[in-house]
Amino acid sequence: MRLFRQLSWFLKEHKTSYLIAVVLLIITGFIDLTPPWLIGKVIDGLRSGSMDRTTLIQYVVGLLVISVASFILTYLWLAKLFGTAFLLERTLRSRFFTHLLKLTPTFYQKNRTGDLMALATNDLKAVERTAGFGVLTLVDSLNMTAITLVVMGVAIDWKLTLAALLPMPLLAYAMNKLGSQIHGRFIVAQDAFGTMNDQVVESISGLRVIRSFVQEEIDVKKFDDTTTDVFEKNMHVAKIDVLFEPIIKLLVGISYLIGLSFGTYLVFTNDITLGQLVAFNIYLGMLIWPMYAFGELINVIQRGTASLDRLEATMRVKPLIASTPKVEVVRPEVITLTNLTFTYPETNHPSLHGIDLTIKHGQTIGIVGPTGSGKTTLLRQFLREYPIGRDMLKVNGTPYEDVALETVRGWTGYVSQEHLLFSKSVRDNILFGAGEATEAELQEAIRLAAFTTDIETLDQGLQTMVGERGVTLSGGQKQRLSIARAMLKKPELLLLDDSLSAVDAKTESQIIDAIRTNRHQSTTLIVAHRLSAVAHADEILVLQDGVISERGTHEQLMERRGWYAEQFERQSEET
Q1: Whether residues 310 and 352 fall in one domain
Q2: CA-to-CA distance for 498 and 435, rounded, in angstroms?
Q3: pTM for the whole structure
């Protein structure tokens, strides 16, 4: 019962609900044992002729009252037990999702989306089933079995009861063997389900690419192979799962045969009455559910344990970045990078090496360089997504590590290369970062992002639904909507990671002019491949192989006739 120990925190927190459910379940078990005894008394009374009409009516009314009481109590304990189990599922799902939000990019590089979806759906459902149906089968199988056996042994005949229980050790042995096998097979099946989920996510998100390369049939074949693998692994589980009920029925059938044969002999020897034999067989029939429940208990617990083990393995993963605030920083007046060197986890070659930079409040810094030179990596250091050496990055003289993560990300507005939009309206997507804003502030952010004209062309304006990941918008519209979202936040530190690549030169000029005019009192870092986007910057850094190869203003870099001047002239000629 390792799973119940793992869930002890929840069981203790909701012990009152479980206690009420268990008590009502036990009371219901006692009540359900009364009808067979009454039926046996009625049969013996009719057989001996001592049963009159009044007594018979009393027995019938008693059976009706017992049935109604059993119905009410069963409803109450079912609602209490399974309602608490659903609460466990909600609690675990909330904890799991909250934990995922805290984890750093390294975790998502190692774990597939499909596996995480499987954990948040199938595995959590298996744990919930254990907390509900598992507790039911545990209590009911033990309670009903114990009570029924005591009544059979005391009220009828102990010799007959022992004889009918001869097949039970075989049942316990079979359940133990089947349970140990289903645990491992269920983990393998859940892993396969995660793989299938991941492939579905990739195929749907990459549907345009699949169609453009005419790979539909190949992708369907690949998906068929994956679903076949999932099917085979689940069939592997089912081959063990389906053995539970037949084995239980076989052994209970043997118990019936022993009980009926030996019971008939006892009736002929006048050790028990015919009514007692009938009552005994009804009680034996009532043991079918506890026996079946015991088998289901092993099955459910093994599945739940396997799922909880998978969940806890993810929950034990610690984020590489922890928020350990020591100093309160209201606004980033000066940000200093000193010999900043950074290497991505699980790689050996540093992506950044020896970066020295001082950024004063209100400055605009341009970051350019060849593809793969470390521009995005440098920008992401300001978001604290990865750990770096202490004192390499400071704000107002305080190491970034000593400032709360919420504070750092609270004063930062980030527009990434991949513009993630939500399946909501244009208005909701822009308001996402700021939460609430006045209509005037919303319109100002749209103007700064040069998105006003596009809003007017949309069918429903700001209420237009953008579709999943902004599928109804063009690349340039996605970029400007993302910029508007960041501008509405009015961040102290704005990070634009090649966020103007999909707009034309005129629109780019409008956005840059808006940034220069409206953010002269805030800090802006712009990563760009089109150098005209950073020509106005107070300082421009040229990164090559993770090292600053050139730095200065636009005019200074043009005079040096290096990489920057060469690229700027080439782009100017192309324009």
Answers
A1: no
A2: 25
A3: 0.71
